[in-house]
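Project outcomes to date are best conveyed with an example. Our students and postdoctoral researchers have been running inverse folding experiments weekly, and each run begins with a structure described purely in tokens. The record below, which covers 234 residues, was selected by the lab manager from last quarter's runs and is presented without edits.
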């Protein structure tokens, strides 16, 4: 394990399920969706069908609540053979739109840790999130955490390519970047691949799409909570 204090210049933070709870709002919407479709399939079958639709639509619709809502509607039409009522479609639409209004209250210890890192003046702090531009921006405003980030990057996906671009934008080498996030697939693996550092803060729930096999790495640190992060950096 390498000491990152003397190497890193930029800390990039994931937003959803790293700074605030996001997944449980999606899970709640999916529960409503399953109950609305109970006449057509059991909840396990509805959830699998929805994940299939979301995966199929990923290339065109990307991530976020709007993509999720469209995929729910498409799945409902598919599972009902086009016979679902307007009333039920309305309920699905409402469940999807409720996700756009999630509270984005910072998770325990997040604000204090960001404050401590910012006060040190040692690093440039970046928010780096994927999803719908407007939705992600609105969530950041609702979280009240905007003041901590000198740069906000909202991208369609977080792969090796987007991390290279982030380094270019910030004027640093990959070895001067550390990414903090809950998703091994989006926040950790691509950063390790380009030569950067990762701090993995797992969240209690993970969207099935983000699940990948995890592994140890000399540039990967694991913490149980966000509050432990300043200990690695200051
Ligand atoms: Mg996340």
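After processing, the design step wrote out the following sequence:
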């Amino acid at each position: 394990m390498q000491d990152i204090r003397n190497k890193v210049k930029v800390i990039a933070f994931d937003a959803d399920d790293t700074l605030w709870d996001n997944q449980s709002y999606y899970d709640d919407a999916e529960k409503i969706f399953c109950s609305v479709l109970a006449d057509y399939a059991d909840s396990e079958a509805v959830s699998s069908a929805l994940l299939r639709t979301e995966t199929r639509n990923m290339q065109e619709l990307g991530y976020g609540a709007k993509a999720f809502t469209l995929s729910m509607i498409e799945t409902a039409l598919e599972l009902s053979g086009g016979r679902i009522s307007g009333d039920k479609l309305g309920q699905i639409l409402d469940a999807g739109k409720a996700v756009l209004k999630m509270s984005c209250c910072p998770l325990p210890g997040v604000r204090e840790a960001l404050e401590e890192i910012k006060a040190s003046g040692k690093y440039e702090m970046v928010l780096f999130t994927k999803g719908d531009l407007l939705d992600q921006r609105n969530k950041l405003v609702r979280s009240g955490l905007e003041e901590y980030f000198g740069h906000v990057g909202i991208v369609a996906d977080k792969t090796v390519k987007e991390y290279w671009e982030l380094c270019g934008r910030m004027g640093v080498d990959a070895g001067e970047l550390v990414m903090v996030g809950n998703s091994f697939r989006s926040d950790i693996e691509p950063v390790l691949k380009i030569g950067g550092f990762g701090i993995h803060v797992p969240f209690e729930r993970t969207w099935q799409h983000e699940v990948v096999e995890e592994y140890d790495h000399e540039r990967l640190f694991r913490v149980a909570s966000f509050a432990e992060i300043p200990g690695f950096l200051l």
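The two ends are 16 Å apart (CA to CA). Residues 23-99 form a domain with the DNA polymerase; domain 1 fold (CATH 1.10.150.240). The training component of this project remains on track.
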